[in-house]
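Try this one yourself first.
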């Protein structure tokens, strides 16, 4: 059973974590390594992943809407302006893997979901605040056009990197990451709602036909598909329901996918990214990855809670939130939780706090309750 007093306290902490990661120039870093709780042996996450920052924007909008405060919109709007200055965006209309705070690219891999997530976040903010899109028009136009330019019938024309930054899909084998494609479909539909443009909607519909066409008749979703498929289960597949809404929570293929995520990836009442994950973010000497085995990711437990709230199973949704709260000492959510005391993880991780905020808001909505 959730302790609502503790939940309220953690929501305030989570908001503070995001605001602490919001830099004066608009950048939203993944984690602040100068934070007192940040372990010295954890990897440096003082970078901007547009996807992570987009979840931060959505979480702030949801919490302000639920609590009736509306205090944090400057964080989102400064970030959207930062996006326009990010290296390569004006030229390509795309966001790459990660950036330094000053907007210079830290890594050059193309991750389609980053651009889709930013478009989703802009749309979410415009609706939540009842704003005119005019202030963000240039960002929306460039990003939506950028996604259309790199899409060709059933695949991206550039090599694409998955959201975990560990695998690639290649255009010569017409491969697509399921999560990434869902992000782009949602992003283009959101762009079309803000600034109706036939080309964007045609491309979104084509992408959706490719994704749903492949999985029609399949028993569950998989990580990537094309001429070569990666049939492994991956917790990021939850994204096809929330936030991207390509499938409904009640769809059979989604239910079967979620069942397999829980059956295959649940360890110590937490959720791993995928089977055999080694990344732990634990460093030796500040520069060498130890890779002694991944832990479970709190943000994925919160994400799973969102799914169960969406299907109306509030008891299970609450259970997945409690599964993290019962294991976390103090007020900060790490990237990973381990079954030992020596592996160290980035703490506090903004994305973990974002997903907590989102999960609580979704649970309250499912219960038809207000803060």
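Now uncover the answer:
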């Amino acid at each position: 059973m959730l302790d609502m007093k503790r939940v309220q306290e953690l929501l305030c902490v989570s908001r503070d974590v995001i605001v602490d990661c919001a830099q004066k120039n608009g950048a939203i870093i993944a984690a602040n390594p100068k934070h007192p709780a940040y372990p010295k042996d954890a990897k440096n996450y003082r970078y901007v992943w547009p996807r992570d920052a987009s979840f931060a924007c959505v979480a702030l909008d949801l919490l302000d809407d639920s609590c009736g405060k509306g205090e944090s919109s400057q964080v989102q709007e400064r970030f959207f302006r930062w996006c326009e200055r990010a290296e390569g965006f004006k030229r390509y209309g795309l966001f790459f893997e990660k950036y330094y705070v000053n907007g210079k690219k830290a890594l050059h891999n193309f991750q389609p979901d980053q651009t889709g997530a930013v478009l989703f976040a802009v749309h979410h903010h415009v609706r939540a605040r009842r704003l005119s899109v005019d202030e963000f028009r240039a960002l929306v136009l460039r990003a939506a056009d950028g996604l259309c330019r790199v899409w060709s019938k059933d695949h991206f024309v550039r090599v694409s990197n998955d959201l975990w930054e560990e695998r690639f899909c290649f255009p010569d084998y017409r491969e697509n990451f399921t999560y990434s494609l869902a992000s782009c479909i949602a992003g283009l539909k959101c762009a079309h709602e803000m600034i109706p443009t036939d080309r964007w909607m045609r491309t979104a519909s084509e992408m959706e036909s490719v994704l749903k066409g492949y999985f029609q008749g399949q028993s569950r979703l998989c990580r990537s598909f094309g001429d070569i498929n990666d049939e492994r289960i991956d917790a990021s597949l939850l994204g096809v329901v929330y936030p991207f809404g390509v499938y409904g929570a009640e769809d059979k293929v989604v239910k079967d996918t979620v069942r397999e995520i829980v059956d295959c990836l649940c360890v110590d009442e937490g959720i791993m990214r995928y089977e055999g994950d080694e990344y732990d973010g634990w460093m030796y000497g500040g520069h060498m990855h130890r890779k002694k085995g991944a832990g479970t990711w709190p943000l994925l437990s919160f994400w799973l809670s969102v799914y169960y709230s969406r299907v109306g199973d509030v008891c299970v949704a609450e259970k997945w939130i409690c599964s993290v709260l019962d294991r976390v000492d103090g007020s900060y959510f790490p990237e990973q939780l381990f079954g030992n005391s020596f592996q160290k993880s980035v703490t506090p991780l903004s994305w973990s706090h974002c997903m907590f905020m989102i999960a609580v808001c979704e649970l309250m909505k499912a219960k038809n309750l207000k803060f």
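Discussion: Residues 4-21 form the longest helix (18 residues). The chain has one domain: 4-366.
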